[in-house]
Amino acid sequence: MANDILQFNGNQIANFVIEKMNSYIAGGMEPETAARLTRGELAAIYKGEHRSRNKSGIWIMTPPPEAMSIEAALVKCDVVLANIISRKDPASTTATTNKPRNEYKSSSGIKHAVAAGIGIKDFYERSRDNAPDAYTTDLRKIEALWNKGIRLFKAFINGRFLALDIDRKPSKVDGVETFYRMFPKKNLPAELQNIPDSFPCYTLTPSGGFHLYFKYTGPELKLKELAPSIEIKEWQITCPGSREENGDYVLYGELNEAPPLYGLIIDAIEEMQRKKEQARAKYSQSRASAVEDRSTCFEKTRISLDVLADEATSAYEGNHNRQVSFAYRACRCRYSDTEALTYVKSRPDIFGEDKDTETTIRSVFSANGGKQ
Checking phi first, is residue 128 left (phi over 0); if not, alpha (psi -120 to 50) or beta? Predict the structure, then answer.
């Protein structure tokens, strides 16, 4: 089966699993978590739920690595995963740090992004930002935008890359400091131990922050902020080579040398998601409890019908006047017209036994918006 996205030789399933596990475990992810993500990505491919761009920048469905059923593919995958997890050193990578890197600014940065298969569009164009077809890799169309004086572009990175947007604005928390509080340097891969110098592919933003590019084709992580001044860009980001009034977005390094999204970062994202979901659940539960408490408090403090009848008796003489007064008070205390009418009929000593009693009570409730 032809496959322009994944190049396999020999046992394609095994090679796919080993490659994915290597990329996840290289960053410090636990083997069991890496195995779950690898298996999930393979299943998505066989279900037809995984797509990426081909060399021409066109979005296509990623074909399965081998022509077999999803059940057979996952069985084969599980065997390879079990063998990898049982090894003491399941995967390793060698990081190259502080190597000379190319600098791409202005149109060269944009061309480099397009060459990596990233579609772009006018930053301020009104369109669906998360829709691949809103972006283009056609250099003629991009040149036309450039000739119009457009210098700020959005880049669609979903399905190829994920970027950490690390902010360093003077008025905000320093994102680099936040990152190293979250991830002690001794636990990090070499590429992350001296941001940005050690990182192979990043954009320097006009405000002095960084966009760190990672290769990532896994499931959507659905988290916008990892920590203060550290945002997660899964779908689109300001394109390298763009220009704002206060400066350029300058790309350093090659996008094809971006490291995989390290497992320790995926673990941190999933943990943050879990905490947010717990916080939302706790908030919803507390709100529900508060509503219940208010309802219980209201029921406990509501004035009884006996007290309302005594008030009506003290205020008025005559059956009709007392009925009207009582019905109005009962309505204000959120009794229903049926409850009030039943009580009135049970107390002929106060309200009499007039033929129009029911009409009187229900009319008062209707006029005052009471419960039927």
Answer: beta
Tell me the torsion sign for CA atoms 24, 28, 31, 37. negative
Contact criterion met (CB below 8 Å) for 153 and 248: no
Whether 63 and 112 share a structural domain = no
The boundaries of the domain holding residue 44 are 12-86
Q: Would 91 be classed as within a structural domain?
A: no
CB 202 within 8 A of CB 210: yes
Q: Alpha carbon 243 to chain centroid distance?
A: 28
* Residue 79, H or E segment: helix 70-86
Question: Do residues 180 and 254 both lie within one domain?
Answer: yes
Burial of 98 (0-12, 13-18, 19+ CB in 10 A): exposed
Q: Other C-beta atoms within 10 Å of 10: how many?
A: 6
Q: Is residue 72 located within the same domain as residue 107?
A: no
188 in the same domain as 325: no
- Alpha-carbon distance of 14 to 37, in angstroms, equals 15
Counted domains in the chain: 3
The residue out of 86, 117, 142 marking a domain boundary is 86
Between the two ends of the chain, the Cα-to-Cα distance in Å is 70
Residuewise pLDDT in 10s, the chain (372 residues): 333 223 333 378 887 887 787 777 665 677 788 888 888 888 888 888 877 666 565 667 778 888 888 898 888 888 888 776 664 333 333 344 455 678 888 999 999 999 999 999 999 988 788 889 999 999 999 999 999 999 999 999 999 999 999 999 888 899 999 999 998 888 788 889 889 989 999 999 999 999 999 999 888 888 899 999 999 999 999 999 999 988 999 999 999 989 988 888 888 888 888 888 888 777 777 666 666 655 554 455 678 999 998 988 888 888 888 999 999 989 888 899 999 999 999 998 889 888 888 999 988 888 888 877
Which tokens sit at 209?
């922050």
Helix (H, G, I), strand (E, B) or coil at 208: coil
DSSP label at residue 120: E
Whether omega for the bond prior to residue 170 falls within 30 degrees of 0, making it cis, is: no
Same domain, 249 and 324: no
User: Could you tell me if 49 and 159 lie in one domain?
Assistant: no
